[in-house]
Specification:
alpha/beta, Rossmann fold, two-stranded antiparallel ribbon, 11 strands, 40% helix, globular, hydrolase, transmembrane helix
């Protein structure tokens, strides 16, 4: 009994010592386990590759193998991350310089131009295994939006919001993509829905309170309580979109996050008949000629690069399903390749096929099928090529398995698209994009194409400063919509060139001074203040003010500057005084090749 008491006394006195010993042993075992796990990870073949090992088991010669492969694969992954910027990953969609609340200034209104979200490819691609949806269904905004559409009804008859029920050009348009994981041809994907919901969330944080968009409708208006939502009209928010499902769905998704549910239900959507939102100033032969000459310069650059031509043919022949007229446009291949890169899919491979001798006089009946409406194409270089051909290629079994009309010496070789191939093609696309954006023809074409839209934007600016109820105007468009507008205003990123990422946004924020009656505006592109890049706002032409309590600054440009630019200086670079004269010129100004 005495021995037991002695042991308990010793144990009590050295309790801290025993705790230190146990803690040291636990830390040692934890460190040993971590080193063992890290060693196993490094020994996995291809563990450092973004896409994993190719299905054919081949490894790019430039990446090599052995001990140096993981480091080189990591470098390749960083390069692919640069290309994925045009895919607009959610981490890229953030609030930066977006205004809303400036000290001493009241936000009068916002005009926002967006590009639609992630879409399926314009050309038929071999997309087996590519998931264009939201990973794991973990996006709360997507779940909330889908739940709202499933559970709400728009009228007493019980019709639901899975389709747009209001009278007009968009009646019957679906509000969600047809499939959760699919990459439908030229259509918005669930990833695209997610992108625009997140953009709308940013716009809600920035503008909803400042513009008073969270206020309830006036209860004195009996129509709010008695009129079905399909007949309500909101004069605070004006929406324009082209008649494409992807732009329509993008607009509604963005506005769902921005607005309260009752104001979203009250929306009316107006159609723009042009991707340039040119309204009444659209027809312009001079603009088409400028673009044609710019494309000719691009073709000359491509023909000088035999190495790139070979890579373009290899990637195009591997990823595109059906190319009876050959592959001549790198941007068509880039668009198809982005379907892989934007959705973290493995780089595609192809197997050698047995040659099939064509039967004379017999034509593939599937070739006459046209399964995609032209209104679901972007006005990019790849799409202009499609329009010139007059139809999209059919999604036929023959196209899936390769062109059956290939001769024996034209049969595809066994192999895979490698990271070095991606580097070669995407680097060329970036180079051409940067050179095109820096050429004078690009700006001149942008001035002509966006004249109608800039006039429209200025007219709404004037409405906002004159006390009109309109507070928010949305233009939901395409990559070319923003290309024309940024080119005309001189907003060019040297690193991005004319590349416009999915879900890009360009905001015109209109402010009134609380101390005076002066009106100003600022321009924010993808969250970055670009007001100083505009010729008629640069330098001393703008007013620098404090943006927040941390001392950040914002540049405000007088409304008079853009009005004067539109009416006096707009056509000076074209040696003309009005739109008709500028578009009717026989020859464009001379310019050097790029």
């Amino acid at each position: 009994m005495r021995l037991l008491k002695e042991l308990m006394r010793v144990a009590t006195q050295n309790r801290a010592f025993y705790c230190y010993v146990l803690l040291s042993v636990w830390i040692f075992l934890l460190i040993a386990g971590m080193y063992r796990y890290m060693g196993n990870v490094e020994s996995i073949p291809g563990g450092g590759s973004v896409f994993g090992p190719s299905s054919s088991g081949t490894v790019s010669s430039s990446l090599g193998g052995g001990e140096g492969a993981p480091a080189k694969a990591s470098s390749t992954a960083q390069r692919f991350a640069k290309y994925r910027e045009r895919c607009a990953p959610l981490s890229q969609l953030q609030r930066f310089d977006d205004g809303g609340l400036l000290e001493g200034w009241k936000l009068q209104g916002v005009l926002l131009v967006i590009r639609h979200g992630d879409r399926g490819p314009i050309s038929h691609v071999r997309s087996a295994g590519i998931n264009c949806g939201v990973t794991g269904g973990t996006d709360n905004l997507v779940n909330r939006y889908r739940s709202f559409l499933y559970n709400s009804s728009s009228s007493a008859s019980g019709s639901n919001h899975m389709y747009w029920n209001k009278v007009g050009p968009f009646h019957g348009f679906p509000l969600l993509p047809a499939t959760e994981r699919g990459c439908p041809l030229g259509q918005l994907t669930y990833k695209g829905i997610s992108q625009l919901l997140h953009v709308g969330e940013i716009m809600h944080q920035v503008y909803a309170h400042a513009l008073g968009l969270l206020l309830k409708p006036n209860p004195n208006r009996a129509s709010v309580e008695t009129t079905p939502h399909t007949l309500l009209n909101s004069d605070e928010v004006v929406v324009f979109t082209t008649r494409y499902r992807r732009t329509f769905q993008s607009a509604l998704a963005m506005l769902f996050s921005l607005l309260p549910a009752d104001k979203w239900l009250a929306l009316n959507v107006r159609e723009s008949h042009s991707m340039a939102f040119c309204f009444s100033e659209c027809s312009c032969p001079q603009s088409a000629l400028l673009r044609k000459r710019l494309d000719a310069m691009m073709d000359k650059q491509l023909l000088k690069r035999n190495d790139v031509l070979g890579v373009m043919q290899w990637i195009g022949g591997t990823i595109l399903q059906h190319t009876p007229n050959g592959i001549s446009n790198p941007f068509e291949v880039v668009d198809a390749l982005l379907t892989v890169l934007c959705h973290d899919a493995a780089l595609p491979c192809r197997r050698k096929k047995q040659p099939v001798t064509p039967k004379p006089g017999k034509k593939n009946s599937n070739q006459e099928l046209v399964d995609v409406i032209n209104i679901d194409q972007d006005e990019t270089a790849a799409n202009l090529l499609q329009e010139a051909q007059g139809q999209m290629e059919p999604d036929s079994p023959e196209a899936e398995n390769g062109n059956p009309l290939l001769q024996a010496d034209e049969s595809p070789q066994e192999g895979c698209v490698e990271p070095t191939h991606v580097d070669t093609l995407m680097s060329l696309a970036d180079e051409i994009s940067q050179r095109s954006a820096g050429h004078s023809y690009y700006k001149l074409s942008g001035l002509l194409r966006s004249y109608g839209m800039i006039r429209h934007i200025v007219s709404y600016m004037l409405k906002m400063i004159s006390g009109d109820r309109t507070k928010f105007v949305l233009y939901s468009g395409h990559d070319c919509t923003l290309q024309y507008l940024t080119a005309a205003l001189g907003i060019i990123s040297p690193s991005q060139g004319k590349t416009i990422a999915y879900a890009s946004r360009l905001a015109f924020e209109v402010y009134r001074s609380e101390a005076h009656t002066d009106y100003y505006f600022r321009v924010v592109y993808n969250g970055r203040d670009v007001t100083q890049q505009i010729d008629f706002c640069e330098g001393g032409k703008s007013l620098r003010v404090t943006r927040d309590s941390r001392g950040n600054k914002a540049d405000l440009c007088p409304i008079e500057n853009i009005i004067r630019f539109l009416h006096e200086d707009y056509f000076s670079p074209l040696n003309a005084t009005n739109f008709k004269e500028a578009c009717g010129a026989v020859n464009p100004p001379k310019a050097p090749e790029f």
